[in-house]
Design goal:
mainly alpha; elongated; single chain; 5 helices
Length: about 90
């Protein structure tokens, strides 16, 4: 159970950090990042940003699966599913 929670916590935090770094690195508009995200919500761009932000977590799933760390892999997969469901609802 402890390993599942570690994977779940990392799976929640890493996409947030990667998405923020991605937006901070590539967005050079006049709006603040929060205003840009609000505008992205009205289009399909937010789903695409979530997809890009999930890339490190997906890589982690493949590596954890390869090294047979099943409980940590399950935790990361559950967090990925939560992100996908939230992105589709938005």
């Amino acid at each position: 159970m402890k390993h599942f929670l570690i994977g779940f916590g990392a799976g929640i935090i890493v996409p947030l950090l990667f998405g923020w770094l991605f937006m901070a690195g590539f967005y050079d508009g006049d709006l603040t990042i929060s205003d840009a995200l609000r505008l992205m919500k009205s289009t399909t761009l937010l789903v695409k940003l979530v997809s890009v932000a999930l890339m490190p977590s997906l890589c982690a799933v493949f590596l954890l699966n390869h090294f047979e760390k099943w409980n940590v892999c399950r935790g990361v997969m559950v967090s990925i599913m939560i992100y996908i469901i939230v992105a589709l609802i938005m």
